[in-house]
Amino acid sequence: xxxxxxxxxxxxxxxxxxxxxxxxxxxxxxxxxxxxxxxxxxxxxxxxxxxxxxxxxxxxxxxxxxxxxxxxxxxxxxxxxxxxxxxxxxxxxxxxxxxxxxxxxxxxxxxxxxxxxxxxxxxxxxxxxxxxxxxxxxxxxxxxxxxxxxxxxxxxxxxxxxxxxxxxxxxxxxxxxxxxxxxxxxxxxxxxxxxxxxxxxxxxxxxxxxxxxxxxxxxxxxxxxxxxxxxxxxxxxxxxxxxxxxxxxxxxxxxxxxxxxxxxxxxxxxxxxxxxxxxxxxxxxxxxxxx
Length: 291
Hints:
Blueprint: H1 38-66, H2 68-71, H3 76-97, H4 102-106, E1 109-113, H5 121-133, H6 136-147, H7 154-159, E2 161-165, H8 172-199, H9 203-230, H10 237-244, H11 247-257, E3 264-267, E4 272-277, E5 285-290
Antiparallel strand pairs: 1-2, 3-4, 4-5
Helix pairs in contact: 1-3, 1-8, 3-5, 9-10, 10-11
C-alpha cells in the first residue's frame, strides 16, 4: 500500500525544526486600580462607624438610667469607651482582611496594598490601628483623602494601602441608588437607636414610678384600716380619703402621684385591688391588691 505524502503541519502539528522567530509573549498587564471616590468612602465610614458610636452612647445612657451606682464611678465611661474601641478595632481588622468592611462592600470598594493584593493579618491590624489615628481634629486624617491624587487617607499612607473601586464602574443612576439606599440605612440606624434611648425611663420617670408604688402601699394600709372598722373593704375614694384622717392631704397626694383619670379601685368582702398610672412619661401602671 503506498504511503501518503502528508504536509508536516497536518492536523495542527507544528513542523519539525526551530520555531518561528519573534519576541517572547509578555504577561498581561495588571488590572487598573481605580481609587475609591471620596464621597463613597465617606458614606462607608458613616456606615461602619455609626453602630459603634451608637452602641457606646446607648450603653452609657442605660447605665446612667438603670445603674446609677455604676454611673457615679468616674472610670465607667473610660471602660465603656475602651471596650467599644476594641470591638471597632477588631471589626476593622477583620474587614481589612476580608478585602473591605461592610460599608466598603456596600459602596463597591475594596482595601488592597499598592500592588492590588489582599491584605494579610499584619497589614490588616496595622491599618485598623492607624485608622484611629485619622480620627482626631474632626477626622483630619480622613479629609486628606479629599486632596490626595489616589484618594488615600492618613491611615492608608501609614499602612501602605489603597481603597479602590471593585468590579465594573457604576453608572450615575446606580451611584444615586446606592447613595440614597445608604442614607436610608444611616437614618434608619439613627432613628432606631434614638427611639430605643427615648423609650428608656429617665431617672425622673423611675422616681415617679417608685413614689407611685409607695403611695399604693399607703392605700393598702388605709383599706385594711377601713376593713377593721367596717368589716369590708371599700371601692369609694371618698371613704378611703376620710379613713386616711386628712382629706385635703389625701387629695393633694393623689394629684401629685397619679393620673386622676386612670385610677381604679375594686373591693369587696374578700379583698381589694387598686390600680393607678404613675406620672412618668409612659404613665406606667402600678397595682396593689390584698389581702
